[in-house]
C-alpha cells in the first residue's frame, strides 16, 4: 500500500508539472490526469478490500475521498471517449451494413435502400447533436475537475496519502505476517467476483436489447477489478489470466454507456425524424457491441462455466 501511495504522489507531481494553462488538453496533461485517477482508484479499491486489517474509520474516510477524486477526474475522459466512439460508429455505419434498429410495435421494416438514405440524411445531424451534448458535458466535467484539484478537500486527500506512504494505520486485531493477514480478505474478494460472474444471465444472443442486465455486468466488472487489486497486493503482480476478461468488461461498459447516450440524444425534443432514425441505428449498433463484449468475456473467462446451465 505504501508503493501505491508513492505512485499517487508521483502522479500528482506529474499532474502539477502539466497543469499550466498552456498544457491544457495536451497528451502530457491527459496522461497525468489518467495516472492520478488510476492511482486514486487503486488505493480506494485496496482500502475497500482490506478494510478489516486497517483502522476502519481512517480507511472509510480516505476511501470515500479517493472515490470522489477518481470519479471527478474520470468524467471528462469518459465524455471525450464516448463522443469519439459514437462519431466513429456513425461514420462506419454510413458505409456499412446496418444493424437492426428496434422497430416500433407492429411496423414493417423498411428496405435497405430506404434505410441507407434515411441514415445518410440524419447521420450528420445526429453527429452534430451528440457533439454539442457531449462537448458541453465534457466542458462542465473539466471545470469540475479543475475546481476539485484546487480545493482544500483535494489537498487534504493528498496530505493523507502522503502520510500513507510512510505509515499504514492497522487495526488492533491485525497481527502476524502480512501475507497471513491479507489472505482472508483477498480470498473473499475473489469469491465475491466469482459469485457475481455466476449470477450473470445466460447467453443473450436472441435478446439484443437487454439493458436491464447491464447492471449485473457492471457489478461483475467492479468486483473483478477489486479482485485484481487484491491479487496484486498479495502476490506482488497482476493475474495475467484476468487481463482479457477485464478488457472485455471495459468494452462492455463503454458500449453500454454509448448506447445510453445515443438513446438520450434521440429523446431530444423537436429533432428531425431522420436524426432520430440515425440515433436509433447508432443505439442498435452499440447494443450489438455490448453483446459482442459479453461473448468475448465468456470466451476468455479462465475459471469454470460463467453461469449455471
Automatic annotation (TrEMBL):
PROSITE patterns: CHAD
Superkingdom as given in the UniProt entry: Bacteria
InterPro entries: CHAD_dom, CHAD_dom_sf
Domain named CHAD: residues: 1-306
Protein name: CHAD domain-containing protein
Species for this entry: Streptomyces sp. NBC_01401
Amino acid at each position: 500500500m505504501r508503493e501505491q501511495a508513492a505512485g499517487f504522489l508521483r502522479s500528482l507531481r506529474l499532474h502539477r508539472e502539466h497543469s499550466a494553462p498552456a498544457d491544457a488538453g495536451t497528451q502530457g496533461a491527459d496522461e497525468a490526469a489518467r495516472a492520478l485517477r488510476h492511482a486514486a482508484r487503486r488505493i480506494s479499491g485496496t482500502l475497500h478490500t482490506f478494510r478489516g486489517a486497517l483502522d476502519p474509520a481512517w480507511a472509510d474516510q480516505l476511501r470515500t475521498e479517493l472515490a470522489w477524486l477518481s470519479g471527478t477526474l474520470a468524467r471528462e475522459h469518459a465524455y471525450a471517449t464516448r463522443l469519439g466512439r459514437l462519431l466513429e460508429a456513425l461514420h462506419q455505419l454510413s458505409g456499412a451494413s446496418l444493424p437492426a434498429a428496434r422497430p416500433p410495435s407492429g411496423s414493417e421494416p423498411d428496405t435497405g435502400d430506404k434505410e441507407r438514405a434515411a441514415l445518410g440524411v440524419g447521420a450528420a445531424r445526429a453527429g452534430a447533436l451528440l457533439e454539442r451534448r457531449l462537448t458541453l458535458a465534457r466542458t462542465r466535467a473539466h471545470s469540475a475537475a479543475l475546481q476539485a484539484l484546487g480545493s482544500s478537500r483535494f489537498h487534504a486527500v493528498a496530505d493523507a496519502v502522503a502520510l500513507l506512504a510512510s505509515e499504514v494505520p492497522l487495526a488492533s486485531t491485525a497481527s502476524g505476517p502480512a501475507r497471513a493477514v491479507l489472505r482472508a480478505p483477498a480470498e473473499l474478494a475473489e469469491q465475491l467476483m466469482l459469485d457475481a460472474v455466476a449470477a450473470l444471465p445466460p447467453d443473450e444472443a436472441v435478446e439484443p436489447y437487454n439493458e436491464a442486465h447491464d447492471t449485473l455486468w457492471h457489478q461483475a466488472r467492479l468486483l473483478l477489478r477489486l479482485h485484481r487489486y487484491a491479487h496484486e497486493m498479495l502476490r506482488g503482480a497482476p493475474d495475467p489470466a484476468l487481463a482479457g476478461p477485464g478488457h472485455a468488461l471495459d468494452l462492455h461498459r463503454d458500449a453500454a454507456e454509448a448506447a445510453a447516450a445515443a438513446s438520450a440524444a434521440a429523446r431530444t425534443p423537436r429533432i428531425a425524424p431522420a436524426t432520430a432514425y440515425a440515433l436509433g441505428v447508432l443505439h442498435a449498433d452499440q447494443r450489438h457491441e455490448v453483446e459482442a463484449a459479453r461473448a468475448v468475456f465468456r470466451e476468455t473467462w479462465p475459471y469454470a462455466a460463467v453461469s449455471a446451465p
